[in-house]
Amino acid sequence: MRIFHPLCALVLAAAAPAALLAQDSAPSGAAPTTTAAAKKEPVKKKPVKRAGPPAKELFGAAKSPAPMEARAIGFYAKGCLAGAAALPTDGEAWQAMRLSRNRNWGHPKLVALVEKLAREAKTHDGWSGLLVGDLSQPRGGPMLTGHASHQVGLDADIWLTPMPDRRLTNQEREDLSATTMLADDKVSVDPKIWTDAHARLIKRAASYSAVERIFVHPAIKKALCDGAAKDKDHGWLRKVRAYWGHHYHFHIRIGCPAGSGNCEAQPSLPADDGCGAELKNWLALVKPKPQKPKPEVPVAPGKPAPAKPGITLEQLPAECKAVLASGNDAPLKTAVPAKEAKPAPAKSSATK
Question: What is the structure's pLDDT at 299?
Answer without folding.
Answer: 66
